């Protein structure tokens, strides 16, 4: 292990000299390929969730209540009451290094080790640690052909290897090619665009499973809720959502 770490450090040092990469956040130098598109300082400045924050147990939205007087399982924001997933968590706030990583992932199928490690840490906390199978939020085939890849599938594949959980990239499909979410669209409008957009092709693979559904960003929860509804209808016992980041609601 020590030899491998030393070799990686040496490789990173040479790489930084020969092919210097600028941080997408501050413009400084990215010291290691494991950090992806952001430097170490920008990673440190990005707000990451530790699991100790006061937050909605269901959707993961940070709250301003003290957990000293309220059981975590009873802490709810009430905005997600109608959502069909069991619980949703993100690695951190959609800002800084996480935002830059998400934007880069939409254009380049590269997932850095820092992101994979962060997501694995979140999955190993309750209640996501009950998951038995990993599924990516699917793109419609037309959109995936245009982009060339599905970033959620890249995340799911990396996590499957890291966590030794079965990867299922075929059961959940996007049957309706919906319009992209428009800037300024309210939550009801977003939900309307994805209502009944997903279906399960292989219910026998889903029945009785506790699904870990992965995507890049949790915004309103509309897309993952629609996915969760299709999965629970097909027999999933629970549907957990894991994303790289989420914006903070006011």
Structure, briefly:
With 250 residues, the protein is α/β, with parallel strands linked by helices. It has helices at residues 2-18, 40-45, 96-105, 113-123, 141-147, 151-163, 187-194, 203-206, 222-233; strands at residues 87-93, 133-136, 172-174, 198-200, 210-217, 238-246.
Structural notes for this entry:
- The structure is a single chain.
- This protein is α/β, with parallel strands linked by helices and about 250 residues long.
- Helices cover about 35% and strands about 15% of the residues.
- The protein contains 9 helices and 6 strands; from the N terminus they run ααβααβααβαβαβαβ.
- The strands form 2 sheets. It has a 4-stranded parallel β-sheet with strand order 1-6-5-2.
- Helix 9 links the parallel strand 5 (about 210-215) and strand 6 (about 240-245).
- It is globular.
- About 40% of the residues are buried.
- The model has no long low-confidence stretch (mean pLDDT about 90).
Query: Which consecutive residue ranges, at least 5 long each, have pLDDT under 50?
Result: none
Taken from the alpha-carbon principal axes, the silhouette is: globular
How many helices in DSSP terms? 9
Radius of gyration: 19 Å
In spatial order, strands of the major sheet run 1-6-5-2
């Amino acid at each position: 292990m020590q030899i491998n770490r030393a070799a990686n450090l040496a490789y990173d040092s040479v790489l930084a000299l020969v092919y210097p990469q600028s941080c997408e956040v501050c413009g400084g130098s990215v010291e290691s390929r494991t950090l992806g598109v952001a430097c170490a300082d920008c990673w440190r400045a990005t707000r990451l969730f530790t699991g100790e924050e006061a937050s909605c147990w269901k959707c993961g939205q940070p709250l301003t209540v003290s957990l000293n007087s309220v059981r975590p399982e009873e802490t709810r924001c009430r905005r997600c009451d109608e959502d069909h997933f069991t619980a949703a968590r993100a690695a951190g706030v959609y800002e800084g290094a996480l935002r830059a990583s998400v934007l880069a992932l939409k254009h380049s199928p590269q997932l850095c080790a820092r992101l994979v490690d962060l997501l694995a840490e979140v999955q190993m906390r309750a209640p996501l640690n009950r998951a038995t199978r990993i599924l990516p939020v699917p793109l419609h085939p037309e959109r995936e052909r245009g982009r060339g890849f599905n970033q959620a599938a890249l995340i799911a594949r990396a996590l499957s290897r890291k966590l030794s959980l079965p990867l299922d990239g075929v059961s959940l499909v996007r049957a309706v090619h919906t319009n992209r979410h428009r800037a300024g669209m309210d939550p009801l409008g977003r939900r309307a665009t994805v209502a009944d957009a997903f279906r399960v092709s292989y219910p026998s693979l889903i029945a009785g499973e506790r699904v870990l559904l992965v995507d890049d960003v949790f915004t309103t929860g509309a897309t993952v809720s629609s996915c969760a509804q299709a999965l629970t209808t097909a027999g999933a016992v629970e549907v957990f959502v894991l994303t790289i980041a989420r914006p903070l609601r006011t």
